[in-house]
Amino acid sequence: MRPVSFSLYIHIPYCEAKCPYCDFNSYAVKGWPETQYVDALIAEMRARAVQAPWAGARVRTVFFGGGTPSLFDPRSLERVLEEARRLFGIESDAEITAEANPGTVSAQKLRGMRTAGINRISLGAQSFNPATLRFLGRIHSADQTIAAVKQARAAGFAQLNLDLIFAVPGQRLEDAAADIDAAAALGPDHISAYNLTFEEGTAFGAALKAGRMRQLPDETQAAMYAMVRRELARRGYPMYEISNYARPGCEARHNLTYWRGESYLALGAGAHSYAAEGPAGRRWWNLRLPQAYIAAATTNGVAQAGGETLDAGVSASEFTFLNLRLTAGLELRRFEQRFGVSFEQRFGVQQKRLTEGGLLLHEGGRIRLSERGLELADSVFAEFL
Ligand code: SF4
Fold first, then answer.
1. Which protein residue has the closest C-alpha to ligand 1 atom 5?
2. Last residue of some domain: 223, 258, 293?
3. Are residues 148 and 34 in the same domain?
4. How far, in Å, is the centroid of ligand 1 from the Cα of 325?
5. Which residues of 16-32 are buried (b: 16+ CB within 10 A; e: fewer)?
6. Sequence-ordered list of residues with C-beta below 8 angstroms from that of 315, at least 6 positions apart, any chain
7. Are residue 172 and residue 244 in the same domain, yes or no?
8. How many separate domains does the chain show?
9. Whose Cα sits closest to atom 7 in ligand 1?
10. Same domain, 45 and 194
């Protein structure tokens, strides 16, 4: 079934410096081939625009992620949007987000981004504590984040997200609480708060492995997560996804596409796309290195490095644990519409076990995680694999 609309992700892989915890496909560079990269994005978009399921469907959300999209001239981002408008059409009420590093924006750049058609800005604040920012290798100060929020407001951005990281080694509960306070005081409509993870292939991952760094104890991390949920809700930002909080009605529409298991087209170096095809699905990904991506996309239109078809069984598993990330949970009717069997027929055994164990709740035609299920989310998700 062809989607009527879809979400478009654009990856900008360049950064000023590589943060030691970051496992995104991003590269610290002094200069970047901006024009060639945008030419490659446009070539890839043209090639995908004639393919199913994107041909004939409109764009309902766009997300410029990275990397650091705010390194680019706003006119470069505008070129990408113009092409998307020409090839697919962008819905008039589309959510168009760009990530921005507070160390790379200015009043002028933010005005340019707004003029380019971007209507939502996501600032990587991470913390307001100088020691934590230094530890995380961030290139900006808390004052720069505060200034960026003011400049974004002045530029006309009504929709604004702040990213935070907690459970940083050395951080105390009151430090994390102070960050929540500082973020909420700036009045964004959306806050993402991520528990720091130590991923393979990152500087922090290596330091952990070598015993040069230690994670906070599990119970401290759990206490911080509980505090984040409670304090953000108290300030008008109830949790709607495991790491995301918003004023009611301000949930990120682009990310909801991912969590609801719907189709998205992702362009750029290392970008992963997903097409839901009836009960099955298809995923593919691009060459990771920016230069290899530019060369392939410019020559062939596509720069695909690999792909896989997901049968109905795998798709049903993914659909389940993605939807369970949402506080609203999984809508049983949608599961049945997509997979042609009821959730109970497919996952009745797991549902019974997890419900009896107090980890899942079943109410109002939905299945969702309980408070305890939220704390043990990864083990709940593993039950559906
Ligand atoms: S700025 Fe963002 S994308 Fe770039 S290295 Fe840091 S966390 Fe990763």
1. 18
2. 258
3. yes
4. 24
5. eeebbbbebbbbebeeb
6. 261, 276, 279, 280, 281, 338, 339
7. yes
8. 2
9. 22
10. yes
CA of 210 to the centre of ligand 1 (A): 23
Number of helical (H) and strand (E) elements in the chain, helices listed first? 15, 17
Task: Using the predicted structure, report yes or no on whether residue 2 has a pLDDT greater than 80.
Answer: no
Atom of ligand 1 lying closest to residue 18 CA: 5
- Please list every protein residue whose CB sits less than 6 Å from any atom of ligand 1: 15, 18-19, 22, 24, 26, 66-68, 101, 124
How many angstroms is it from 14 CA to the middle of ligand 1?
Answer: 9
The band of 97, judged by pLDDT with boundaries at 50, 70 and 90, is very high
Cα–Cα–Cα angle for 159, 150, 184, rounded to 5 degrees: 65
Report how far residue 285's alpha carbon sits from residue 46's, in angstroms, rounded to the nearest whole number: 17
Does residue 296 fall inside a structural domain?
Answer: no
Residue 92: strand, helix, or coil: strand
Instruction: Name the residue range of residue 335's domain.
Output: 313-385
Residues in CB range of 134: below 8 A, 6 or more apart: none
Q: Cis omega (within 30 of 0) on the bond before 238?
A: no
Helix (H) or strand (E) holding 323: helix 312-323
**Nearest residue to 16 via CA among 101, 129, 120, 134:** 101
CA of 21 to the centre of ligand 1 (A): 8
pLDDT for position 192: 98
- pLDDT of 1 > 70? The answer is no
Residue written as token pair 């001239």: 73
Ligand 1 atom with the shortest distance to the CA of 66: 3
Q: Are 90 and 211 in the same domain?
A: yes
- Same domain, residue pair 234 and 341: no
pTM above 0.70, yes or no: yes
CA of 16 to the centre of ligand 1 (A): 8
Q: Which residue has the tokens 């991003």?
A: 26
* Stretch 326-347: mean pLDDT: 97
Ligand 1: residue of 18, 23, 134 to mutate (most ligand atoms within 8 A of CB) is 18
CB 138 within 8 A of CB 145: no
Mean pLDDT, the chain, rounded, equals 97
Ligand 1 centroid, distance to 20 Cα (angstroms): 9
- The rounded Å distance from CA 76 to ligand 1 centre is 20
